[in-house]
Amino acid sequence: MENENDFRIRTYTKRELACLYCPNTTARCAIRTLTRWIKRNSELYAELLLTGYHARVRTFMPRQVGIIVRYLNEP
């Protein structure tokens, strides 16, 4: 049986990761919320930009997921 707290750093689609952070909203709303959180946190946003991130990216690579988790904690 898999535990709900078994979050792993791996490649995630933006939709997948956003839904983990905002499980009680629609996928579209979750994506908007995650994108807003990223843009409002200037340090997080700047660090992601150094990895090649841009707002229209559809996939977060493990390194980017690690950065997001460091600033926003685990979903």
- Give the beta-strand count: 2
Our count of domains comes out at: 1
Strand content: 5-15%
Sheet of most strands: 2 strands, antiparallel
Termini gap: 19 Å
The DSSP helix count reads: 4
Radius of gyration, in angstroms, nearest whole number:
12 Å
Low-confidence stretches: none
Sketch the topology as an H/E string, one letter per element.
EHHHEH
Question: How would you sum up the global shape?
Answer: globular
Spatial ordering of strands, largest sheet: 1-2
Protein name: DUF4248 domain-containing protein
Pfam family, one: DUF4248
In short:
The chain contains four helices and two strands; from the N terminus they run βαααβα. With 75 residues, it is mostly helical. α1 packs across α2.
Can you characterise this structure?
- The longest helix is centred in the middle third of the chain and has 14 residues, at 27-40.
- Helix 1 (14-21) crosses helix 2.
- The protein is 55% helix and 5% strand.
- By secondary structure, it is mainly alpha-helical.
- A two-stranded antiparallel sheet has the order 1-2.
